[in-house]
TrEMBL record:
Coiled coil: none annotated. It comes from Flagellimonas aequoris. InterPro entries: DUF2007, N-reg_PII-like_a/b. It holds the Pfam family DUF2007. This is DUF2007 domain-containing protein. Residues 5-68 form the DUF2007 domain. Transmembrane segments: none annotated.
């Protein structure tokens, strides 16, 4: 299975709402570098990445578009 980064941040909390929404829709996802970025947050090169399976990208794109267009 190939994984794709759909969003990244220096702060894990920025990614949690989207991660929760994707999981609620039945889409498997995970946070890459979750623990490293918590420990090394003072270094700009360490970010947490929200990743999904490549085969879920169509549904993920729909959900992200819906979220962006919600007032």
């Amino acid at each position: 299975m190939s994984w794709v980064t759909i969003k990244s941040s220096h702060y894990e909390t920025d990614l949690l709402p989207l991660k929760s929404r994707l999981e609620a829709e039945g889409i498997q996802c995970f946070l890459r570098n979750e623990h490293t970025s918590q420990v090394m947050s003072h270094m700009a090169t360490f970010v947490t990445e929200l990743q999904v399976a490549e085969e879920d990208m169509e549904k993920v794109t729909e959900i992200m578009t819906e979220i962006e267009n919600t007032p």
